[in-house]
């Protein structure tokens, strides 16, 4: 069995703490898991862009970083905002793609089990330019659980409060839902809204204005806004 | 101005307002009068009408039929916008249930709770919201007064003044001099004069590259200074001479007849002179007796004045604490105020005040920067919570995205003020 641990061991044996090695992903398991991605993404020799970009050389690539693929606006913004693919960002992204890029065309709910993500990342990593040289600071993740506390997701928001709070949003995000320069936030499924706001709040998702605005929203307030925007049609 | 559908809607709105007024009073609905249809006033009127669903009678007094936004007026000077791009009618507000009356408010009687219009009408109110913007402090720049605004425009209230300044810029002789007299704090839009310098420089670089810009500034430093100075060096090397207070920039007089500017004793002949004098609250705030010095002190929780709980002041005219005087701030304050006013008049739920601001500036094509903060209401004032600012040395993609964001913001805030365009 070929695992990333083998690569890591060769490259940085002395420097790596033992637990990280123990938790490194299994490339073969990752390859199996990749079956669910294959409909849209190619990887390996001769891979080309399909409805999703090819995934060779993904590590260290900027989000929306291929010149010859047409990315969603949401992805382009994330790239300009500084999102780069490393084990940690991939882990967050794979867990729930829409937490990081709300408007991604990738219609995939995410890989919920941290362990599975670790395997997938280990597999993807093999197709980076020089897997053995990926620095130690970027270990193939020990899957971290990013999942929002279910209690937060279960909060029922007060749409009237949301309507008031939305005043802070509509100075920039048009209530009528235009998407030029600033993304549309109307008719956004409630749980995705909540996950995205918490991703800004915890600074997993980049954008100085949104990190600042979401940074001081409480759980109740985020729930209220989500409840309001999910039905806002005009 | 051509008579298009929008202006037509605007005029019919006045007729509707005058006709509807007595009937509405007879029904005994609570009445809100808003003076000034700019960033603060238009937003407040629209939100109260929209959220009260007809249970409050909202009248907006605004003399102009087309509101030209000061925001993006510098981009017009730079050639990035046409004048019509920054003009907005009041038809959307009228359609949204606001009685729009195109007239000046000339007096406020706080005892009788009435507002007198230049046309003679007396409007009663239960709550009065003032958002009259700014006027200039008399005698602030030696040699300049309002009668000189054609020779030396301020272009700090957008519209004809902005068009005049653009025409003067275009008529500058080759290698000529553009002078700006910058204002002392506090004034509307802290980065405004410096975005203007950038946009004038952009125009000159493309049309009159040997021309020069001199800025006489009474301040030792200014908003986003490092970002602007970096931008001026990168894009307009050698064109901009900024003379701050340390170098006598505050010691200025002008002679509009001779077209000269004297900075710290040294007289210079100039081709264009943009004088931006010290500012104060729009006159009507003073007439209403709610100012203390140049501005109207307000309570942070709801923007009511310290002088009168039934009179609110929004935007530039208010003295509220830490927020900069900006369109974004005025819009943000208006929503807090609208919520509080509606609560006071109809018993609807009043939520805690929350404010925010972001100001974008354009330095050159696709080179945008921004600064912003969030604020909360304390007993004493509107108080800053958290903030951020663009960094020097950012890459071109980030700057371009920032500029594109400002375009999105402009569309967003104008729709938030005036309603979606018909
Ligand atoms: C060059 C420039 C660039 C700017 N750029 C930005 C920017 O990028 N972002 C930003 O957020 N802000 C910007 N601003 C600031 C912004 O324009 C103001 O802060 C904002 O307009 C303030 O809103 P307000 O409601 O207080 O006043 P205003 O928007 O000025 O509205 C006041 C209204 O009241 C009316 N009025 C006055 N007196 C009376 C009366 N007696 N009766 C009836 N009506 C009356 C006036 O006609 C006017 O329409 C800029 C300003 C300038 C000058």
Describe this structure in words.
- Chain A is mainly alpha-helical.
- Chain A has helices spanning 4-12, 18-23, 27-34, 73-80, 87-95, 97-100, 114-125, 150-154, 159-165, 167-170, 190-201, 208-215, 219-229.
- In chain A, helix 9 (159-165) packs across helix 13 and helix 11 (190-201) packs antiparallel against helix 13 (219-229).
- Chain B has ten helices and 24 strands.
- Mean pLDDT of chain B is 93; it is low at 1-26.
- In chain B, helix 2 (39-52) packs across helix 10.
- In chain B, 31% of the residues lie in helices and 26% in strands.
- Chain B starts with a helix and ends with a helix.
- At the A-B interface, helix 4, helix 9, helix 10 and helix 12 of A face helix 9, strand 22, strand 23, strand 24 and helix 10 of B.
- Bound molecules: flavin-adenine dinucleotide.
Q: How confident is the prediction overall: mean pLDDT of chain A?
A: 79
Contiguous low-pLDDT stretches of chain A (5 residues minimum) are: 1-22, 133-145
Approximate helicity band of chain B: 25-40%
Show the largest interface. A-B, 30 and 37 residues
Number of helices of chain B: 10
Strand content of chain A: under 5%
Q: What structural class results from the helix and strand content of chain B?
A: alpha/beta
Mean pLDDT over all positions of chain B: 93
Q: Give the overall shape of chain A, derived from the CA principal axes.
A: globular
Bound molecules: flavin-adenine dinucleotide
Number of strands of chain B: 24
Radius of gyration of chain B: 22 Å
Discrete helix count of chain A? 13
Beta-strand content bin of chain B: 25-35%
Helical content of chain A (DSSP H or I, runs of 4+): 40-55%
Major sheet description of chain B: 5 strands, parallel
Low-confidence stretches of chain B: 1-26
Number of strands of chain A: 0
How far from one another are the termini of chain A? 56 Å
Order of helices and strands of chain A: HHHHHHHHHHHHH
